[in-house]
């Protein structure tokens, strides 16, 4: 379908500085992206321009320099730290005689490598198809015109039109399958909503330590590595919070500046966990010198997916790389936690994070002294299962005397399940 040069694993990287802050990219980030994609960097070509060149993105002289570097090192790939138009990609490929990928294409390639679940693979394929739909070129020149068959008139459609039609069909097929996934997620969210279980969503710049923090908080074994986009498929786990009860913690894909719009659209079903969360845990690598820019980039993506209004608790991670920084909680003027300083890698400050979450999510609680008759064995079992009891003993008639402490919502639900019998067992209100 595509008349393009084959990509290799040895590449020349290109980074151009622009005076406009909106067009600036980070060279170190490009090197990390290339490494995460399994690409060996043979050379880095840098330069500066005021505006991109319409033909090559760079000037003709710089384009020749890139072509010479490719020839000198025998590279099979050129990676640009910027977004290229389809015509710029083709012009550069013709000049360099090798495959050219822009920043968006490189990120899509990493996502394709990382996808593990069926849903993740569908989302990545959708993003890739949308990206390459504008980059189709004519293949199989001997089939440029397909002749009409028996009973048909006209010369038929060009091969390029055939490719585009097949592409549209595949995109529509993937969208239908992703709609089913979205309905399943919505059913799960409705069930959690009926049980009044809050959802917490980990968000942050890629490689900020979200998965390491997720594993530490939930005692899970989610894949975590010191590389960009180590996590792609979302993971949900239940955690217990004092005075709150169970909560759902969601680990999500990391964000990056200038995140491709095709990716944001493709991962809409996944990112809905973020949109509908009660609280976002915004994980920030405070050892990164660009942490302020990273925070802005994450907030931009949150605005784009309509999650900008969801309350945030900032998690200042990797304090083990900072001097004279100890775990602590920063509070606002009302005394509400707004930042927690910790090290997920060294398991330092995790208790402070749970304390802050309890404060941010704690519901109004009830405390009662109950006298429960021996016939209510089922009710007794449920209270023990909820771990809300203390100071247990028995009176002379065999009644169970116990103190309970639970959220108001749980008390109301239990009252309904016992046909309003539960309040009659209250002997004292704390």
UniProtKB/TrEMBL annotation:
List of residues binding Mg(2+):
211, 231
Which key words are in the record?
A: Coiled coil, Cytoplasm, GTP-binding, Magnesium, Metal-binding, Nucleotide-binding
* GO CC list: cytoplasm
Which InterPro entries does its entry note? EFG_III/V (IPR035647), G_HFLX_dom (IPR030394), GTP-bd (IPR006073), GTP-bd_M (IPR032305), GTPase_HflX (IPR016496), GTPase_HflX_N (IPR025121), GTPase_HflX_N_sf (IPR042108), P-loop_NTPase (IPR027417)
Molecular function (GO) terms for this protein are: GTP binding; GTPase activity; guanosine tetraphosphate binding; metal ion binding; ribosome binding
Check the record and name the Pfam families matching this protein: GTP-bdg_M, GTP-bdg_N, MMR_HSR1
Q: Which residues cross the membrane?
A: none
The Hflx-type G domain, residue ranges: 198-365
Q: Does the keyword Plastid apply?
A: no
Query: Which cofactor does this sequence's record say it needs?
Result: Mg(2+)
Query: Per UniProt, where does GTP bind?
Result: 204-211, 229-233, 251-254, 317-320, 343-345
Name residues in a coiled coil. Answer: 164-191
Record-stated family? Belongs to the TRAFAC class OBG-HflX-like GTPase superfamily. HflX GTPase family.
Subunit (UniProt): Monomer. Associates with the 50S ribosomal subunit.
Q: What does this protein do?
A: GTPase that associates with the 50S ribosomal subunit and may have a role during protein synthesis or ribosome biogenesis.
UniProt protein name: GTPase HflX
Which organism is this protein's natural source? Answer: Saliniradius amylolyticus
Q: Which gene encodes it?
A: hflX
């Amino acid at each position: 379908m595509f008349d393009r040069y084959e990509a290799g694993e040895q590449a020349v990287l290109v980074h151009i500085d622009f005076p406009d802050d909106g067009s600036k990219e980070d060279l170190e980030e490009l090197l990390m992206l290339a490494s995460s994609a399994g690409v060996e960097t043979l050379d880095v070509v840098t330069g500066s321009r005021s505006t991109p060149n319409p033909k090559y993105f760079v000037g003709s002289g710089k384009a020749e320099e890139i072509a010479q570097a490719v020839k000198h090192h025998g590279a099979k790939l050129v990676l640009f730290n910027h977004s290229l138009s389809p015509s710029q990609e083709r012009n550069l490929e013709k000049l360099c005689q090798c495959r050219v990928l822009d920043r968006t294409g490189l990120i899509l390639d990493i996502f394709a490598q990382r996808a593990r679940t069926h849903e993740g693979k569908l989302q990545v394929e959708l993003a890739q198809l949308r990206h390459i739909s504008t980059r189709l070129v004519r293949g199989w020149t001997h089939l440029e015109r397909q002749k009409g068959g028996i009973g048909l008139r006209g010369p038929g459609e060009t091969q390029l039109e055939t490719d585009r039609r097949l592409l549209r069909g595949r995109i529509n097929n993937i969208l239908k399958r992703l709609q089913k996934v979205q309905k399943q997620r919505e059913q799960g969210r409705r069930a959690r909503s009926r049980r009044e279980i809050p959802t917490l969503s980990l968000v942050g710049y890629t490689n900020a330590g979200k998965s390491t923090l997720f594993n530490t908080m939930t005692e899970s074994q989610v894949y975590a590595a010191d590389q960009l986009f180590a996590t792609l498929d979302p993971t949900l786990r239940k955690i217990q919070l004092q005075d709150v009860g169970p909560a759902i913690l969601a680990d999500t894909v990391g964000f990056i500046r200038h995140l491709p719009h095709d990716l944001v659209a493709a991962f809409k079903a996944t990112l809905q966990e973020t949109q509908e969360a009660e609280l976002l845990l915004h994980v920030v690598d405070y050892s990164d010198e660009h942490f302020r820019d990273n925070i802005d980039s994450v907030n931009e993506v949150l605005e784009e997916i309509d999650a900008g209004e969801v309350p945030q608790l900032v998690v200042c991670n990797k304090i083990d790389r900072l001097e004279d920084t100890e775990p602590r909680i920063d509070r606002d003027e009302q005394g509400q936690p707004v930042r927690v300083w910790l090290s997920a890698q060294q398991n330092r400050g995790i208790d402070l994070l749970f304390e802050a979450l309890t404060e941010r999510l704690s519901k109004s609680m009830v405390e009662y002294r109950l006298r429960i008759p021996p016939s209510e064995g089922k009710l007794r079992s449920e209270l023990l299962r909820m771990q809300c009891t203390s100071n247990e003993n028995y009176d002379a008639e065999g009644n169970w005397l116990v103190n309970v402490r639970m959220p108001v919502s749980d008390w109301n639900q239990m009252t309904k399940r016992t046909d309003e019998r539960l309040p009659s067992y209250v002997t004292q209100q704390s």
